[in-house]
Write a structure and sequence with these properties.
- This protein is an all-alpha fold.
- It has nine helices and no strands.
- It has helices at residues 8-18, 23-36, 42-55, 61-72, 78-87, 92-104, 106-117, 125-137, 142-149.
- Helix 5 (78-87) runs antiparallel to helix 6 and helix 7 (106-117) crosses helix 9.
- The chain starts with 7 loop residues before the first helix and ends in a 13-residue tail after the last helix.
Length: 162
């Protein structure tokens, strides 16, 4: 390793300083950097560096999942969040637990997204279809979309706090 080349641990720390990453994401990114400058035993160095960072609490898949939930949860539904979490290479159990948290507030989040985009019920079927496609594109479940577009605020037992 040359003097100017940062170690796998150093590169991982720089990535983690920007935002939370899953272990799989870090492995992919570090491996891609190694491909540019091949080193003997690079995969072992990466694994060892990530093990050390995880042991010190600097890298956590749970924090990465929570970060996705908090950063994207306001704008997207559980279906979209599920794909994002899977793409990060998180364990299926962790994905399921994170999505369970998201589903608790999905109707409320979908209403807020709808309010910001449209603000009022559509006057006709074409308008309702447009609103439904928008919410579906954001990854909200079909039953949630129907409740929001139909304006079934009265069905919601919890007060909205407006």
């Amino acid at each position: 390793m040359s003097l100017g080349a940062p170690s796998a641990k150093g590169r991982a720390l720089r990535l983690l300083a920007r935002r939370e990453h899953s272990r799989t994401e870090l492995e992919r990114k570090l491996a891609a950097q190694v491909e540019d400058t091949p080193q003997a035993g690079a995969a072992e160095q990466i694994a060892q560096a990530l093990d050390e960072l995880a042991a010190r609490g600097l890298q956590s898949d749970e924090r990465a999942a929570q970060s996705v939930l908090h950063s994207q949860g306001r704008r997207y539904g559980a279906l979209r969040l599920k794909e994002t979490l899977r793409a990060k290479g998180l364990a299926p159990e962790l994905v399921a637990a994170t999505l369970a948290q998201a589903r608790n507030s999905e109707l409320e989040r979908a209403r807020e997204v709808w309010r910001k985009r449209f603000g009022e019920p559509a006057p006709d079927a074409a308008g309702r279809a447009k609103q439904m496609r928008f919410l579906a594109g954001r990854g909200f479940a079909a039953d949630v979309i129907r409740a929001v577009v139909r304006g079934s605020e009265d069905d919601d037992p919890a007060p909205s706090g407006d």
